[in-house]
Amino acid sequence: MRAYSTTRRELRTQLHEDHGLTLNDYEALYVLSLAEGQRMKRVDLAQRLVLTPSGITRLLEGLEAAGLVEKVACDTDLRVSYAQLTDAGAEKLDAASCGHSGSLRTVFGDHLDEEEIEALADLLGKLPGALDEDAACPTDD
Amino acid sequence: MRAYSTTRRELRTQLHEDHGLTLNDYEALYVLSLAEGQRMKRVDLAQRLVLTPSGITRLLEGLEAAGLVEKVACDTDLRVSYAQLTDAGAEKLDAASCGHSGSLRTVFGDHLDEEEIEALADLLGKLPGALDEDAACPTDD
DNA sequence: TGTCTATAGTTGAGTACGCAACCAATGGTA
DNA sequence: TACCATTGGTTGCGTACTCAACTATAGACA
Q: What does the pLDDT read at residue B136?
């Protein structure tokens, strides 16, 4: 049967069935795990995930409800709040990332060789939406 | 102001404001315009746009309501119906493509040179979801 | 001090999809 | 001929997002 899509859908459903995460859930946990102190201003996280402020609010709503992320106030600026990865969140990420990044590698590896993957990553990295300079510094005050 | 996303959102809103089309609307018109007889089986169009059958039904609903695409029955197989680009659809595509493909070029051109764009297209073309062999032959019976 | 603009974030309403369940037609095969 | 698996397509329902409008804080400047 000629599958409708392939990969992206498969990745999504696998991640969802195995760990109850959407792709963006996963991405959010992943990005947070790399951030200084494992936390980020919501607005920076939004930019990093290419979401609007409301998108981030809803995404974090779910992750907070699941106890994977905590909302932490900033004492120097009452407007901002941080998304802080919890221990449970880090564990969930660990559990999911094994299978997920494996799947990713497989998907790309099926069609591209090592060198091509690197070249692709390089080119995509130059495009906006990818982490531009300032997206890399999550917590500043 | 540090924009939330950038390009994709901008492309979408520009296309929407100027011509009342979503990105997928545009893509559908574009793909149809290249197809033999400017028509395609709905299921093939779905695969090409990486949409589910229900997704295609809803997408074409809108385009049909706008008179840009017509639903044409197949006389050899009563199950299938074609999406047929109308004259109005072709005109709309013309009107939109000028600005849109210009914008696209600009977006990529701002960050990549000619050679890099070509390399990127080449690499992406190898990934699934891009037009695999059979996605190129729209109407067959 | 009051005012004005910019920024962080939430909320309500609308939308573009996916999934599951379904119906109809097709093409075997007995 | 009757049956059955496969394929094309639609519909109901849920969801992840966007946009627009809003509140609240911050910082600049009179």
A: 35
The pair phi, psi for residue B49, each rounded to 5°, is -90, 0
CA distance A79 to A77: 5
pTM of the model: 0.81
Provide residues 111-140 of B with CB closer than 7 Å to any strand D atom.
Answer: none
Cβ-in-10-Å burial (0-12, 13-18, 19+) of A47 comes to buried
Measured CA to CA, the distance from residue A92 to residue A130 in angstroms comes to: 24
Q: How far apart are CA B68 and CA B93, in angstroms?
A: 9
pLDDT grade, residue B4 (50/70/90)?
very low
Strand D lies under 7 A from the Cβ of residue B5? yes
- Average pLDDT on B87-111 reads 83
Give per-residue pLDDT as tens, A76-127. 999 999 999 999 999 999 999 887 777 777 777 777 788 888 888 888 877 7
Query: How far does B86 lie from chain A, in Å, by closest CA?
Result: 26
Residue count of chain A: 141
Contact A69, A28 (CB under 8 A): yes
- Distance (Å) from the C-alpha of residue A110 to the closest C-alpha of chain B? 9
